[in-house]
Amino acid sequence: MSVSRRGRPAGPTGPVISRALRLLDAFDADRRELTLSDLARRADLPLSTTHRLMQELCAWGAVERGTDGLYRIGLRLWELGSLAPRGPGLREAALPFLEDLSRVTRENVQLAVREGTEVVFVERIASSGSVPVLTRVGDRFALTVTGVGLVLLAHAPVEVQEEVLSEPIARYTAKTVTDPAQVRRMLADVRSNGFSISDRQVTMDALSVGAPIRDRQGEVVAAVSLVVRHGSTTSHALAPLVRTSAQAISRALSN
User: Fold this and answer.
1) Would the pTM count as exceeding 0.85?
2) Is the distance from CB of 107 to CB of 222 less than 8 angstroms?
3) Residue 29 has pLDDT above 80, yes or no
């Protein structure tokens, strides 16, 4: 048994790591700066434990403490995140084609991957005047409602599809499809047509069309989408543009 510097038996590694991860998970897009009390409350940890762990996380660089006393995510985590192959590596290969698609359409262009039962947005390019969207880089979202999400769910393993569709589907607008049987039909259409359509499912003013990005083995590893203002064009007019971009990115990943 290892002993701490204070002479007490050191706790097992697992719970300590779990508590540290809970503290990091307390941060999100709406809570980028937190007090020690906020962190303790959101992680459901004692204040003394929170203080000790945050000191260690600060020393390592996972978090930073400003002169105002607030804690923020540190650059060390960003440096580690940049090594993730499904994040920056994919983004670097895709970015020239995303920029081309943005220049041609002057609309929102999004790149995403699946993480478990959620979408994670890796890149987003928004042109001036394009319809506002709820998503940001690093955000997670439901697989069932976005253009990229429907693509990724359609090509996910059957057990993932069943897990997603066995749970209640969140409703964002009056147009959100919450019937699992109807979602299954939509997923079949995605696989058959090679693109997805999300019509006013997230916001009532947005239409999204997505397409799959494949690796050299032909497996779907990501998805790209265009998000435009509803009524400005049709999904079938957007589909060739999105599919062409997805195919170009797929070729770049295979090189």
Assistant:
1) no
2) no
3) no
Task: Give, rounded to a whole angstrom, the gap between the first and last alpha carbons of the chain.
Answer: 50
Joined tokens for residue 58: 């600060």
Can you say how many angstroms the Cα of residue 28 is from the centroid of all Cα atoms in its chain?
A: 12
Q: CA 5 to CA 23: how far, in whole Å?
A: 23
DSSP assignment of 137-151: TT-EEETTTSHHHHH
Strands (E), the chain: 63-65, 71-73, 108-115, 118-125, 140-142, 196-199, 206-214, 220-229
Query: Taking 80 as the threshold, does the pLDDT of residue 83 lie above it?
Result: no
Beta bridge mates, 109: 125, 226
- Give the count of beta carbons closer than 10 Å to the beta carbon of residue 52: 14
d(CA 132, CA 172): 15
Note the pLDDT of residue 81. Answer: 67
The β-bridge relationship of strands 71-73 and 108-115 is unpaired
Sorted by sequence, the CB contacts under 8 Å of residue 227 that are 6+ apart come out as 107, 108, 109, 110, 130, 131, 133, 147, 206, 207, 208
